[in-house]
Amino acid sequence: MSQKRGTLKNAGQPFGFDDLIQRMQIRVVAGCVVSLLLCTAMTVHAGTRRPDPKPAQPALSDDDLDSIHTVLTKMGDVFLKGNAKAMKGLLTESIERDSIITTLKREFQEASYVDFQIERPKADDSLSDIRHSVDATIRVKIVYRDDARPPDARRAIENTTFQNFIVQREPNGTFTIVNSTFFDNMGRRSGGMVLFVRALTALMLVCAMLGFWVWMASVAWWIRPRTTLWRVAMFLPPIGPLVFFFVAYLPEKLKKKK
Length: 258
Description:
The chain is of the alpha+beta class. It has 3 domains: 2-46; 62-188, Nuclear Transport Factor 2, Chain: A, CATH 3.10.450.50; 193-257, no CATH class. It contains 7 helices and 5 strands; from the N terminus they run H-H-H-H-E-E-E-E-E-H-H-H. The chain has helices at residues 2-11, 17-47, 62-81, 95-110, 191-222, 228-233, 239-257, and strands at 111-118, 122-126, 131-144, 157-169, 175-180. Strands 1, 2, 3, 4 and 5 form a 5-stranded antiparallel β-sheet that branches. The longest helix has 32 residues, at 191-222. The chain starts with a helix and ends with a helix.
């Protein structure tokens, strides 16, 4: 009887109590290990030497700014003369140079610069060891060529702007112009009208060629005696109709007039 009661007493204890104790012990040990590893990692990181900061880019000296001012003054002479090709020697050799020269050609076709003054530039930022950003105030007087007023009634338009220039130091110590916000809006004053005129002219030429083709094809079809060669030539515009016009049609008309 006593043995059975002892068995029942043990059976009344909570199920898995020993396992719960073991799990708690494992968690405590694991937490201690993780904390120890974190402390070690932080200590190693704190002792690691940080990389040295990048050296500051060399700033522009007063002599450099004077040299840049000289280049910008030469640019002003180019604008006064309206010679876009002369700008090539002042621009950095890059893919942007041809685009800038093309822009200036359009600008000089639309406007004439009668005055160009540029102040000594101020250093803005150093982009690299050889490229720098500078700001300069520009005062210009412009006469637009498409002005409808009589020449004696035209007045130059004065404009003052604050522009940014990207310049590059060349191996010989001089500076060239990479690009500038000054060129952004040039050569666009009549761009929409020019595009419309060109599109209209192209459409008129296409219509004229189409009419000429139909005209020559009808003549070649009804010509007597029939010639298969000329009929086939009509399928090769515009060469076929042109050859037929100068070789067969036009000589025949001239003979009839005589």
